[in-house]
Write a structure and sequence with these properties.
The chain folds into two domains: 64 residues, no CATH class; 145 residues, Roll (Ubiquitin-like (UB roll)), CATH 3.10.20.90. The chain has eight helices and ten strands. Strands 4, 5, 6, 7, 8 and 10 form a six-stranded mixed sheet that branches. The radius of gyration is 22 Å and the shape is globular. Keywords: Isopeptide bond, Metal-binding, Phosphoprotein, Ribosome biogenesis, Ubl conjugation, Zinc, Zinc-finger. Interacts with FBL, SNU13, NOP58, NUFIP1, RUVBL1, RUVBL2 and TAF9. Interacts (via HIT-type zinc finger) with the RUVBL1/RUVBL2 complex in the presence of ADP. This is Box C/D snoRNA protein 1.
């Protein structure tokens, strides 16, 4: 057993291939590695290791995709004129703020979970926002974030040593113990080839709206919070 190193292993995790001896060790390894125990159907398999079972798995995966796409195409509410008008209005409002907002077809996860809205009375966006902390392998989803809120205020509940939630603070300890000057906020530049991924650096002191101006957003913004002193493979545009 790779968890307790005491008993003979009886189970193997379909996701990370870790050996476990009991249900207790299975739960411990899932908690320690943030593993969901579900086999990754799209994991890379080299040609030398490719077998008939892998071929069958790929075939079933494509069948599942086909069924999901067909079910989405039949979903009447997502294709209603009211929904289309709402999305068109949202894109037009974003264009008026110099933001190119693109929406995905029905069936995509980002389309389904997006909660972004525009308040006509206040004349401002309330964004669905995803924060990714790659050094801690952590992700957080925020709903209805006002566009006039600064990035510093948005990040306070996560990396501020005083105002952050104790549980979150412990998980993001490497961020909370680092000086604010070392924190860098990046956003992926869309519509680039896969072998030329680049990121824009955002200004933490400015509002979310100011940072999104002049950029392309697919469904909702995803912000990557990184530390300058730690090596990462994210290439910032112009650097």
């Amino acid at each position: 057993c790779e968890t307790c190193s005491k008993e003979e292993a009886k189970y193997r995790c379909p996701r990370c291939m870790k050996y476990s001896c009991s249900l207790l060790c299975v739960k411990k390894h899932k908690l320690a590695l943030s593993c969901n125990g579900v086999r990754d159907k799209t994991a890379f398999v080299s040609v030398n290791e490719f077998t008939d079972l892998n071929l069958l798995s790929d075939y079933r995966f494509l069948e599942d995709v086909s069924r999901t796409a067909d079910a989405a195409a039949r979903h009447c509410t997502m294709h209603s004129p009211a929904t289309k008008r709402l999305l068109q209005c949202l894109r037009n409002k974003a264009r008026g703020c110099n933001i190119e907002l693109k929406t995905l077809p029905v069936g995509f996860t980002k389309r389904r979970e997006n909660s972004t809205m525009f308040n006509s009375m206040e004349k401002k966006f309330y964004w669905h926002l995803k924060l990714i902390f790659p050094h801690c392998h952590a992700e957080y989803t925020l709903k209805r974030v006002p566009d006039d809120k600064t990035l510093t205020d948005i990040l306070k509940p996560y990396i501020d040593p005083v105002e952050s939630d104790p549980v979150v603070c412990q998980r993001l300890k490497i961020y909370t113990t680092s000086p604010q000057s070392d924190v860098q906020i990046l956003m992926k530049i869309e519509n680039r080839s896969r072998n030329s991924v680049r990121y824009n650096e955002l200004d933490a002191c400015r509002s979310l709206l100011d940072n999104l101006k002049g950029k392309v957003i697919i469904e909702y913004p995803t912000l990557f919070v990184v530390l300058k002193r730690l090596k990462n493979d994210m290439v910032v545009l112009g650097k």
